[in-house]
Amino acid sequence: MASILIIPLVIGLAITGPIGGVLSDKYGSRILSTIGLIISLVGLLGLATMHYNTPYWILATWMFINSFGSGLFQAPNTSAIMSSVPPERRGVASSLRAFFNSAGMVLSMGIAFPLIIGTISITEMMDMFVVGGANMPVAVQEAFTAGITNAFILSSILTVPAIIVSAMRGKNRD
Prior knowledge:
Blueprint: H1 2-5, H2 7-27, H3 30-47, H4 56-83, H5 90-117, H6 122-130, H7 138-168
């Protein structure tokens, strides 16, 4: 069920990933990557407004906006990285890019989970996932979603310097 509920994330990436690559080849990566980060930030801020009773369609909309921006960022950014190294070093650059991407995801989980689970007791957390969230007291559901909100707020804060760095990077190469 969780996989079905996050389909808006996949749709956003599927739409803008290829489009971002084509536009990046035509117009360059700096502006497109920066716009993608800004759109992603809007999605993160929208997700930070969630509550335990937020309707799914609202969450789906914010998930789509976030992944739409991520897709618009990823292809041009990867293109910029790969075009900045000589052809004989692209294998190394690609593996380092993949490593840092994976390390960033792992690090983000290490930051987000304490923010989320720090809002409720471990017993309530286990009950939520074993028994089911719908059967949990509203106070526990509110506390849990407050932790998720904290994680999205921190993600939003961390995205702002990324936007600034993306906008300030050097001009595109011919």
